Amino acid sequence: MRNILTQFSRVFVGVLFIISGLIKLNDPVGFSYKLAEYFGETVLNLPFLIPYALGLAIFIVIFETVLGVMLLLGYQPKFTVGSLLLMIVFFTFLTFYSAYFNKVTDCGCFGDALKLTPWESFTKDVVLLFFILILAANLKLIKPILGKKFTNGLVVASVVACCFMGYWVLNHLPLKDFRAYKAGTNIPEGMAYPAHIKPKDPIITFIYKVNGVDTKFSYQDVMDGKIPADAVYVDRIDEIDKTGYVPPIHDFTMEKDGSDHKDEFLAEPKLMVFVAYDLTKSSAEGMQKLEALHQLAKGKGYKVIAMTASGETEIAGAKKQFGQTFDYYFCDGTTLKTIERANPSIVLIEKGTIKQKVHYNDIDQLTL
C-alpha cells in the first residue's frame, strides 16, 4: 500500500510540476510580471529583486520543470524531493499570505492558461505539500526507472530543451497564446457585457510615492487635484466587484489629447499598432525598425499608430531618437503588457479583430 501511494504521489507531483513549469516557460515574461508583483512593497517588500524578476522567473520555471522530470525518472531522489519540498513550503506560505491578506489576485501558477483564485492557489499548494511529504517519508521507494547513463542523458536533455525554449520565446513570442488578446480575438466583443448583465463601475485607486512612501488616492482625489506636486506615480488598481461579471478585455483605451479614439481605430479595415508599454525600457534594436515598417505599411493602405503607457516627454524623446513620424496613444501599462510581451511588438488589427502579432525580431513574418 505504501509503495502504491508513493508511486502515485511521484507521478502526480512530477506531472503537475512539468505541466506548471512548461506553461510558465511558454511565457516567462508574464511570470516575471507576477514575481515583480510579489516582490513589491504590498507583499514581500523586496523591491531590490524587481530588476531581477525575469532572470529569476526563467530559473524557477526551468528548475520546476526539470525537477518534475527528475522525479518521474527517479533521478537523485533525495535532492529532487528535498528541492520540491523547499519550493512547495515557500509557495504555500506565499499563497496563504497573499490569499489571507488579499494581496495578489492570481498566483500565476499556470500562467494565463488557468486562472486560480488566491484560496484555490493555496489549496493546490496544500495538496501538493501533502503528496510531497509522502515522497519525503518514503525516499527509499523512489527507484530509477531506467539505466543510469540513459537517465543522466534525459535529465541533461530536459535542461537543454528548457533553456532553448526559454531562449526562443524571449526572442520571439509565446508558443501558445493564452491571453485575452490572442490572434483571432475581436476586441469590441471582448469588452462587451452579455445582455443580461449590468456593468459595474470599478473602484479605481491610484498609488503615488509621497515622501518615499506608497500612498493610495481615490479617483476623486485625482480629479480634485489632491495629489501632492512632488508625488511620483507608481500604479493604478482597478477593483471590480467580485460578484460581478468582468469582461476578458477591459482598461483598453487609445487616448490622445484627452479623447479615447478606440472606436475610431477599431473600425479601421487595416490597422497596424506598435505596442511599447514603457519607452524607457524598449529595445533600441526594435524601436529602430518601426519607422521603416511604418512607411511600408502606410504604402499598403494601413493606418499606423503606436500605444504606450509612457508620458509625453518619453514619447517626444523616442520619436526624436528613432526618427518616428507616427503618433502615440495612451493605454494602461498592464493592459499593454497583456496584449504583447515584446517591447516593442507589432499587432495587425482588422475591424477590431486581431489578425497577427509578432515580436520585433519577426517583422519579416508579417502578412501585409
From TrEMBL:
<feature type="domain" description="Methylamine utilisation protein MauE">
    <location>
        <begin position="3"/>
        <end position="136"/>
    </location>
</feature>
<keyword id="KW-0812">Transmembrane</keyword>
<protein>
    <submittedName>
        <fullName>DoxX protein</fullName>
    </submittedName>
</protein>
<keyword id="KW-0472">Membrane</keyword>
<feature type="transmembrane region" description="Helical">
    <location>
        <begin position="46"/>
        <end position="72"/>
    </location>
</feature>
<feature type="transmembrane region" description="Helical">
    <location>
        <begin position="79"/>
        <end position="101"/>
    </location>
</feature>
<feature type="transmembrane region" description="Helical">
    <location>
        <begin position="121"/>
        <end position="139"/>
    </location>
</feature>
<feature type="transmembrane region" description="Helical">
    <location>
        <begin position="151"/>
        <end position="170"/>
    </location>
</feature>
<dbReference type="InterPro" id="IPR009908">
    <property type="entry name" value="Methylamine_util_MauE"/>
</dbReference>
<keyword id="KW-1133">Transmembrane helix</keyword>
<dbReference type="GO" id="GO:0016020">
    <property type="term" value="C:membrane"/>
</dbReference>
<dbReference type="GO" id="GO:0030416">
    <property type="term" value="P:methylamine metabolic process"/>
</dbReference>
<feature type="transmembrane region" description="Helical">
    <location>
        <begin position="7"/>
        <end position="26"/>
    </location>
</feature>
<dbReference type="Pfam" id="PF07291">
    <property type="entry name" value="MauE"/>
</dbReference>
